[in-house]
Design goal:
Elements (H helix, E strand, L loop, with lengths): L1 H30 L6 H7 L3 H21 L4 H4 L5 H14 L5 H24 L8 H24 L6 H27 L11 H24 L2 H22 L10 H24 L1 H16 L7
Helix pairs in contact: 1-3, 1-5, 1-9, 1-10, 5-10, 6-10, 6-11, 7-8, 7-9, 8-9, 8-10, 10-11
Subcellular location: Membrane
Protein name: DMT family transporter
InterPro entries: Mg_trans_NIPA
C-alpha cells in the first residue's frame, strides 16, 4: 500500500514540477537572453509567474520527499519522467510552437530508455539492504568534491558553457540530493531515540548546498534553452545517478544483478542520454533561436579589411 501511495505522490510531484518548470522557464526566457546574471535573478524575485513556478517547484519537491519516505529512490525518482511530456506540451502551447517529429522521437527515447533502466534497476537492487556508515560518508565526500568541481568550473568558464552543461550538472547534483534525502529519512525512521539522534548533519549540509547550486544551474539553463530540455535532462540524469550511486557506492545490488542486467542498464541509459542530446539539437525553440542568430549574423555589417 505504501508503495502505491509513494507512486501517487511522485505523480503529483511530477505534475507540480512540470508546471513550475514551464512557468519559471518562460519567465526567465522573457527577462534574459541566453545568460542569467545575479541582477536578472533579483529582478525575477518580483515576477509573479516566476514566483508561482517557485511555489509549485517547492510543493513538488515536498511531495517527492514524502514519496521517498515511503519507497526507494529507484521507485520514486524515475516517475518524474512524466514531467517531460507535460512540460513539452505546456511550453509548446505557451510559445505557440508546433512540436516536430524529431522532438517527439527524442521524448520517446528519453522515456523508453529511462523506463528500461529503472525496470532493470528495480530488479537488481535490494531495498532492504542496510547502508553502512562508511558508504554514506563516501557518498557525502563524493558530493562535496563534485560541488567544488562544478562550482569552480561554472565560475571560471561561465561565458563558454552552454545550457547542456548546466542541465547535466544539475541532474547529477539532484541525484545525489535524492539519495541523501532518502538516507536521512531512513535514519530518522529507524532511530531508537529521538528522531534527530542518528541524523548525519554533514550529509544534510552537503545536500542543501548541492540543491542550491543545482537550483542556480537550472535557472541558468532556462536562459539558454527551452524548459522541456531542462526537465528532460533532469528526469533522465537524476534517477540514473541515484540508481548508480545506490548500486556502486551504497552496495544496494541484490541477487538479481548480473552482467546482463548491467549491460541492459548501460544500453538503456545510453538511449535516454541520446534522447536528451537529440532534444537539445532538434527542439523547435532551439531551431528558432539558431535561425535568429544566423539571421543576425547575416545582417551584421562586415568589418572592413586591413
Amino acid at each position: 500500500m505504501s508503495q502505491w501511495l509513494a507512486v501517487a505522490l511522485a505523480l503529483l510531484s511530477a505534475v507540480c514540477l512540470a508546471v513550475g518548470t514551464q512557468k519559471q522557464g518562460s519567465a526567465v526566457a522573457d527577462r534574459t537572453h541566453e545568460r542569467l546574471t545575479p541582477r536578472a535573478l533579483m529582478a525575477l524575485l518580483g515576477n509573479h509567474r516566476w514566483l508561482l513556478g517557485l511555489g509549485l517547484l517547492g510543493l513538488g519537491t515536498a511531495l517527492n520527499v514524502a514519496a521517498l519516505g515511503l519507497a526507494t529512490v529507484t521507485v520514486v525518482q524515475p516517475i518524474g519522467v512524466v514531467a517531460l511530456v507535460i512540460t513539452t506540451l505546456l511550453h509548446a502551447r505557451h510559445r505557440r510552437l508546433r512540436i516536430n517529429r524529431r522532438t517527439w522521437a527524442a521524448i520517446g527515447l528519453c522515456t523508453a530508455g529511462g523506463a528500461v533502466f529503472v525496470t532493470c534497476a528495480v530488479a537488481a537492487t535490494d531495498p532492504a539492504h542496510g547502508i553502512s556508515a562508511w558508504a554514506e560518508h563516501t557518498a557525502v565526500v563524493m558530493l562535496v568534491v563534485l560541488i567544488c568541481v562544478l562550482g569552480v568550473a561554472a565560475a571560471l568558464f561561465r561565458h563558454g558553457l552552454g545550457g547542456t552543461f548546466y542541465v547535466v550538472a544539475a541532474g547529477i547534483l539532484y541525484g545525489f540530493v535524492a539519495v541523501l534525502v532518502r538516507l536521512t529519512i531512513t535514519r530518522i525512521q529507524g532511530s531508537a531515540g529521538t528522531p534527530l539522534d542518528d541524523v548525519n548533519w554533514l550529509a544534510i549540509g552537503a545536500a542543501v548546498v548541492a540543491a542550491a547550486l543545482g537550483g542556480w544551474f537550472v535557472q541558468t539553463a532556462f536562459a539558454a534553452g527551452p524548459p522541456d530540455l531542462v526537465i528532460a535532462g533532469l528526469t533522465v540524469i537524476d534517477p540514473m545517478v541515484g540508481v548508480l550511486l545506490g548500486l556502486l557506492v551504497l552496495g544496494e545490488a541484490g541477487p538479481g544483478f548480473s552482467v546482463l542486467t548491467g549491460v541492459l542498464m548501460a544500453l538503456a541509459g545510453g538511449v535516454a542520454i541520446v534522447g536528451v542530446a537529440v532534444l537539445s539539437q532538434c527542439h523547435p525553440e532551439v531551431l528558432a533561436r539558431r535561425a535568429e542568430l544566423a539571421d543576425r549574423d547575416r545582417r551584421a555589417p562586415s568589418r572592413p579589411g586591413p
